[in-house]
Design goal:
about 775 residues, 22-stranded antiparallel beta barrel
Length: about 775
Amino acid sequence: MASETYAQGLSQTIRGRILDRESQQPLVGATVVVLSVSPPRAVTTDATGTFKIEQIPVGRHTLKISFLGYEEQTIPELLLGSGKELVLNLGLSESFAGLNEVVVTGEREKGTARNDMATVSARSISVEESKRYAASLSDPARTAQTLAGVSGTSSGDLNNEIVVRGNSPRGLLWRIQGVEVPNPNHFSDAGASGGAVSVLSTNVLSNSDFFTGAFPAEYGNALSGVFDVRLRSGNNEKREYAFQAGVLGVEFAAEGPLSSNSKGSYLVNYRYSSLALLNNLGLDLTGDGGVPKYQDLAFKLDMPIGRHKLAVWGIGGLSSTSSRAARDSTQWERYYERFDDKASSDLAIGGITYTHVLNDQSYLEAALTGSGDRHAYQAHELSEGYARILDDDERYVNTSVRASVLYNYKLNARHTFRTGAIVSRLGFDARNGFRSDEYGGQFVQFLQQTGHATSTQAYGQWKYRATEQLTFTSGMHVLHFGLNSNTAVEPRVGARWAFSPKQSISAGLGLHSRLEAPFVYYTRLPQADGSYRETNRDLGLTRAVHYVLSYDNLLREDLRLRVEPYYQYLYHVAISPDPPSTFAALNYSGGAPSEALVARGRGQNYGVDVTLEKYFTSRYYFQLTGSLYDARYRAADGKWRNTRYNGNFVANALGGRELKVGRGDNNLVGLNLRLLWAGGNRYTPVDIAASREAGYGILREDQAWSEQGPAYFRLDLRASYRKNRPHASHIISLDLQNATNNQNIYGRFYDRSSQQIETSYQTSLVPFLNYRIEF
């Protein structure tokens, strides 16, 4: 009997839901076939669009989903382990030809964005990719750094900051569950978009969308890109657990049904820093007491009731680090070695999301969220007599309460409409002071303010399928900032023409804008009479126009070529109004600038991104990406210059192979690598003579960001071993970041102790060992 065949060896369940991609309606009677077993196993979905296929052998499997009047979808190489059920939520697109005809499109392109309004510069990042790629460390932000047009080398190897097409990383918008959130990373700076360790664990993530330009109208307050993160739902039929321990942390996850008679589920994950845990046990592996400490918690509760669904979710993280100078001054070879400092960053985000399926054509989604983040930094210089002198004191506390609503209406296979609004109350309590060489070495309090402001966003979108091959999208986004009554009206349009079964051309055009962090508007500068003046209250919104073209060619079922030329023009950029100054907000990644600012700067980024990607089939994959680009800005001096992030080129080569060990797919070995080659970091040259005379570093501002370090090179390796046992899967992995120990230059600076120009380097070889069990 077939059931006896499937019962042999280790097996697991594949289940999930099939929905209409645009309307989110369940598709009743859709057929789901597992093609990778003999004979193939097939089921149909029930009245809620749910399917379940039991006793499928562990290993890699290919699914085909079909429904009358909808485009067929094939999903290859899904990994099924013995420790966890494979739960899928999939969307099918209605066939343009109508309900009387089945249109077979073959294998759907891997990486297609979940957002059906996207036409260009959009990519879905899967959880498995974040786990598989060498040195991605299960971090979606590090996974995004492998995509064309994206770089992270300017911020350091241990930072997951995302630079999109030469823009400042501050131009990136983070969203979780459809709502804007603060930067979700440990060890981050105020106003920045990255950090050393992600707060987002793959244990709680679903596939997420990443945009690099001309994004749909529902995305506002973003200049360079959007990371639209989704949390998955817990298993609502079976309790499952995961535990892992490694260099980054010790982590535990649990999920299961809320009750035996409910379709609701819970999902919770907690992580604690491994180095901090060892330090608590009396083992200091850092040698100076500067142990990086962090912990984070994430949860999601799903409560569906018929056409209604309530989700309660939250994410929180605490992180801190410190360093202590040697108490023997003879050991101070460099000026920065005489400092004690400590830094911390904390984050809390929570929300309630309500979804109501109104009818067969429309649904409503409303959300109420609250968030808070705190960033603090303090540094003391030790004098020769070991007295501690306050050098830097910063503290930023930001809070937000947001209410949002989204209405989606699918008229038919041709027309889909979406509209929504977001109201945000932004609060802050900020201070920023430091000893300023510019003000004679005196401690200056550049920021000391508590306040709040309101921003309002509204948008509307329309997707129109003119023919089976031609699709148009259009929309409008409006952003209003209540603090100074600045308003931006942002039209967006896009189109995709599939002129052959394997090839398509797409285009996108959009106007985009972004607020500065609220505390930037309250920066104050000392005056000649000893008073302070707030200079930035009326600062306008930074704006950008994105133009993107895209050519896609599915060379074969598992091999895709994509070429995207683009141009971005930025205006109303925050700059210093002083004509000799070359300061522009495009060149800093976080914190509060100690500058008077006006929105008179300009910027432009243009280039081409190329991707050749072989999907994971036949147990191997590869991805080759290359980007040539130029990023420039114009400040108060009127000259066009390189931005800090103008590396000019970046290239990635990723690949991996999965090997079976022994019989069946019970034991799997994974081998993965990543080669990264990019333009070197830019920096402003030091005026060595003026610096020696002044006693501190003075930069050649007339040559801002004109010097560039040697090209950056890094090789990352990853090896993993999966052992499937009855009711549990064991995975052990080793990642080597910078396996060749290449000494990449981070920058050059003037050291006032040696009175020389010194070079700082990025991270050398770093191993990450990890063990994981799913049961």
